[in-house]
Write a structure and sequence with these properties.
By secondary structure, this protein is mainly alpha-helical. Helices cover 75% and strands 0% of the residues. Keywords: Membrane, Transmembrane, Transmembrane helix.
Length: 385
């Protein structure tokens, strides 16, 4: 049952984890949040639809699925890079939140007069090793992480909600860049996480057994076939709940980003972050396992994760995450919009009307790539300044 709700857990967790890195310094900038809502509708929503459609079509994890889909569409193997990019994005997100958690834990322990005499990078490396070990538990750490984070935030509410003064500011390209990054990264659009979640559900269905221990081959084949049958599901049944949940949690994250957590609340919150990071590393290792095997996939994930938290500054990690995730979303949007067969996507999405499908197709082919290119230009201007 936990596998079935993995996508919803991640939809609720990512905004809480990543808003702090992409929200403006003054969270009361009305124009920024309007741009974020605009990007959520025009960029994130079409991308999540594309991701779920490809998941239904391939019935595989992203890396294996892209190999199958590129052969099916007779497209260049270059588009399979999306699978590799998603693994890098997952490790980068895990490294970023673990870096933040290590600083937060040391700060909380200092207030409790219990801080170890260790540099931040050493604590971050230790947490990364622990997170990789926890990743062996698969999906199980997700509800634990969410519970600990919620308890920590509730403890912060004892000091009252922070006062937010809302005001309009000037709209510019760098603000659009931050809004698009927030709309993509913090909701997981283009990371392959929802694709992977759908794959886990399908895999669980296929490998289920009857009480007598025998595989239910007939019922499984029926269920597996139903995932390919356009009349048995609609992508909106999965996409819209995820997207609405992200929108609601995003608003909660907006108002809770300025909460002052007590030391115990910080410890609980950052312990929860560690459990969530383990799922991201599990996802990355599973992707790499398709090519190298599980053990090598875990080793590569560990090495890359430790290197990121020890030698890459946090600000650079944010930049790395922006670049890699933007490229991943661009690859996904171009492949889904221009290379996938129309008939295959129409069946996978199964919209209620042809007009809805046409709107999505225009968005994924034109609006999403243009929005991403403008956002990357905005980030370049921000970094140069």
């Amino acid at each position: 049952m936990m596998v079935r709700y993995a996508s919803y857990f991640m939809a609720a967790l990512l905004p809480l984890l990543l808003f702090r890195w992409f929200a403006p310094t003054s969270i009361g900038e009305i124009d920024f949040w309007l741009l974020w809502l605009f990007a959520m509708v025009l960029v994130s929503l079409p991308v999540i639809y594309a991701e779920i459609a490809l998941a239904y079509r391939s019935i595989e994890a992203p890396l294996a699925g892209m190999q199958k889909l590129t052969r099916e569409a007779d497209a260049s193997p270059l588009w399979r890079s999306f699978g590799w990019l998603t693994a890098v994005v997952a490790i980068a997100i895990a490294a970023l939140i673990i870096s933040g958690a290590s600083s937060g834990l040391l700060s909380a322990l200092t207030e409790l007069n219990s801080a170890p005499n260790l540099p931040v990078f050493a604590v971050a490396s230790g947490l990364m090793v622990i997170a990789v070990l926890l990743s062996l538990l698969g999906v199980a750490p997700l509800p634990i992480g969410l519970g600990l984070m919620v308890v920590g935030l509730v403890m912060g509410l004892t000091n009252g909600l922070p006062q937010v003064e809302f005001a309009m500011t000037n709209i510019n390209l760098t603000e659009w860049a931050r809004a698009v990054a927030l709309a993509l990264v913090s909701v997981g659009a283009g990371t392959g996480l929802y694709w992977f979640g759908q794959h886990l559900v399908t895999k669980q269905t296929v490998t289920a057994v009857e009480p007598d221990g025998l595989n239910v081959t007939k019922s499984h084949s029926t269920k597996l076939h139903s995932t390919k049958t356009p009349h048995t599901y609609r992508a909106a049944k999965l996409v819209l709940p995820i997207w609405i949940l992200q929108l609601v949690i995003g608003i909660v994250a907006l108002f809770s980003s300025g909460l002052a957590l007590p030391p115990i609340g910080q410890l609980l919150y950052h312990a929860g972050v560690l459990f969530v990071a383990s799922y991201l590393l599990y996802y990355s290792a599973q992707q790499l396992a398709h090519k190298f095997g599980l053990v090598v996939g875990l080793v590569i994930t560990l090495i890359v994760g430790v290197l990121l938290v020890t030698i890459v500054p946090t600000a650079w990690l944010v930049g790395l995450l922006v670049i890699v995730s933007s490229i991943a979303v661009l690859v996904l949007s171009i492949f889904a919009g221009w290379h996938m067969k129309i008939s295959h996507l129409r069946k996978s999405l199964n919209f209620g009307s042809e007009a809805s499908y046409n709107l999505w197709r225009v968005a994924i082919r034109l609006i999403v790539p243009l929005a991403l290119i403008l956002a990357l230009v905005g980030w370049i201007l921000l970094w140069l300044s």
